[in-house]
Amino acid sequence: MLIESVFRRDRLWRYVPLILWILFISFASTSQFSAVNTSTVLRPLVLWFLPSVNETQLATVHFVLRKLGHFTEYAVLAYLARRAFISSSREFLRRYWFQCAFLLIVVYALLDEFHQSFVPSRTASIYDSAIDVAGGITVLIILKLLRRNSRARTA
Description:
Largest sheet: none
Shape: globular
Structural class: mainly alpha
Helix content: over 70%
Number of domains: 1
Distance between the termini: 38 Å
Number of strands: 0
Oligomer: single chain
């Protein structure tokens, strides 16, 4: 009974952060995070840091920050997926963590943009999905290289 409880707690500890992050990404795809709404927060911040910026520059900075948000969301997703899969009780997930995490990132990036196509204040873009995947694959590659280097040092 105690072993089963520990096993269940370990599984929750592995997967709950990943699931919560996926839910956050879903929430970020709603109208709450539309460009109009994020500008009410980002505009004052940008003007505080860069008081002499003009409207065109402000629009560019806002655009870039939103795209960095896409990249970062999926970079975190990649990290959490790797964390969950590499310590999974399932041999398949442990062995193929990179491929499984990459598949999760691609599928969820596409589903996220598909969802946004139904939200009136949002626009769906395959380019945003590409940015999402780029954020995820960047972190997966970094983590794979770090793991390979640490194994080489211990060998």
